[in-house]
Amino acid sequence: MTSVESKPAAHPQIQGDKKPLLGGVLQRYSGLVLLAALIVLFSILLPETFPTIRTFRTLIADQAITTILSLGLLVAYRAGAFDLSVAQGLGLAVILVSWLQSSHGLSVPMATLLTLIVGALVGAANGIAIAILNVNSFIATLAMASILEAVIYGVSGGNQIVGGIPQGFLSLGQAQYFGIPVVVIYMAVVAVIVWYVTEQMPVGRRLQAVGSNTEASRLNGIRTARYIFGALVASSILASLAGVIFAAKIGSASLTAGAPYLLPAFAAIFLGSTQVHPGRANVAGTLIAIALLATGAKGLQLLGVPIWTSSLFNGAVLLSAVSIAQIRRSKSRS
Predict the structure, then answer these.
(1) If we measure between CA atoms, which residue out of 248, 247, 203 comes closest to residue 226?
(2) Most buried of 19, 248, 269, 286 (most Cβ within 10 A)?
């Protein structure tokens, strides 16, 4: 009699467990669902131009720079810092690596190394201001962005660099292997490295702890200043690497190369924080977010909408992602 009565009681328990599980999976991968919906929509609206190998190849190649910049931003964000200087850091690297080769005849390895060293110094300056002097990361990195903009104009003399860049350097950004643009390979390598460091190594868990609660981490023996400093240095180095790859890909150096990347990078980070591991920045979520943003922007572009629509789309996604994160935070507190 007891065994007969126990069976119906267990059934609702199992059913009740399945619903949250399914809802959790949909919540964690909602970006993939939306991405699939956008692909289907644009494929129907643009059957001759959107669902093609050429469009796909162009799409991922165009997002390689944004992805590398976003991954650098992710490292700083994991430590609780907002690095607003990454876009100008990218822009400085574009100018600097081109200028060192075209005006001073430096070899490709030397120009690249010096550019990355300058990026590390920029990150160190941010780290000193934020981790040691306790300046708010918004203020410190916004000030650094303004300083870097001035340096860009000072180094270039206010002129775009369009010649004198060695072909060997250009091949580093324009080559293809088995039909895959080399910049996509760079992107994949950086993504794997950042994923491994942030998700599989103790340093990644400590970065997350520092970003979640700096004071609690300090009381538990974590040297928070060291981790924040290191995260900002890594962020700036990756921004400089993105700039070097951008210069090699484009073959010229514009004074405003970095500025257009800031909004998409932040949008990818915040939207990515709602995916895969909701509540924290993660590489997989960021990649999903970038694919979603790029697909939406590319589809709108092929539809012939005005160019400013891409900025509108990115801004709307950023606002939505931040709002969703805030709502979830409020629910978790209640």
Answers:
(1) 203
(2) 286
How far apart CA 156 and CA 253 sit, in angstroms, is 9
Q: For position 234, which CATH number holds?
A: 1.10.3470
CA-to-CA distance for 178 and 295, rounded, in angstroms? Answer: 23
Q: Which residues pair with 181 in a beta bridge?
A: 176
Residue with tokens 């993504």: 191
Residue ranges of E strands in the chain? 176-177, 180-181
For residue 95 the two structure tokens come to: 């100018």
* Bridging pattern class, strands 176-177 and 180-181: antiparallel
User: Rounded to two decimals, what is the model's pTM?
Assistant: 0.88
Q: What is the pLDDT of residue 112?
A: 96
Cβ 298 vs Cβ 55: under 8 Å: yes
Most distant CA atoms of the chain, gap in Å? 91
The residue with tokens 């590398």 is 68
What local confidence, expressed as pLDDT, does residue 334 receive?
Answer: 59
Residue span of the structural domain in which 164 resides: 33-333
Q: How many domains does the chain have?
A: 1
Reduced to 3 states (helix: H, G, I; strand: E, B; else coil), residue 257 is coil
Low-confidence spans in the chain with pLDDT less than 50: 1-19
12 in any annotated domain: no
The verdict on residue 91 lying in a domain is yes
**Conformational region of residue 32, where left means phi above 0, alpha means psi within -120 to 50, and beta covers everything else:** alpha
| Structure-token pair, residue 283 | 């590489």
- Position 11 in a domain: no
